[in-house]
Specification:
Helices cover 74% and strands 0% of the residues. It has six helices and no strands. This is Tetratricopeptide repeat protein.
Length: 107
């Protein structure tokens, strides 16, 4: 039986531009411990036109878990800007709160 990741990859083969499937694959990679691959997928989504706002928040959370707090701050700031540009005050607020929770300390 195919794993969740294999199912997502098969669907992506049919439609490689599907944003939600690409995001789902990034989440599966994170769950499997393939953090760099996951972060690469999230980076791609954050560079889409328009950027996929949830990718910034998930990258920020993942980077924080990995101890890469300064990188997380950068993603979150960029995500807040992208959310505001898209009129998504809720996402901007969530990322702002998470960013504030990280404080001003370095890695």
């Amino acid at each position: 039986m195919a794993t969740r990741r294999e199912k997502i990859e098969a669907m992506l083969a049919d439609d490689p531009t599907d944003t939600f499937l690409r995001y789902s694959l990034a989440m599966e990679l994170d769950k499997e411990g393939e953090h760099e691959a996951s972060l690469a997928k999230l980076a791609e989504l954050s560079q889409d036109e328009p950027p996929y706002v949830p990718a910034f928040f998930m990258a920020g959370q993942q980077l924080t878990r990995l101890g890469r707090v300064n990188d997380a701050r950068t993603y979150l700031r960029d995500g807040i800007d992208a959310a505001r540009a898209q009129g998504d005050a809720h996402a901007a607020g969530e990322m702002s709160e998470f960013l504030a929770s990280l404080g001003d300390l370095g890695e």
